[in-house]
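Attaching the record inline, Q. Sequence:
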Amino acid sequence: MGALGLAWDGEAKVVAIKSGKRNRFAVMDGQLTSGSLAQFVDKILGGDVQYSPLKEALEVVPAYLQDV
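Structure, as predicted:
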């Protein structure tokens, strides 16, 4: 998770990435439960999430293209 500046602490993280002119991301706080995930999505949709700047562009390569 180098591009996000997050260190692996052994816990799963839910990350929302907002792309556009300014790429930004938000990380869900707390334990990963269906209720907390629903609250996080509600905050995203309601515009209440605090985003942080994304320092570098993320490049995601699908698994079927990784060996090509």
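The chain has a mean pLDDT of 83. Residues 39 and 45 are 10 Å apart (CA to CA).

More tomorrow.
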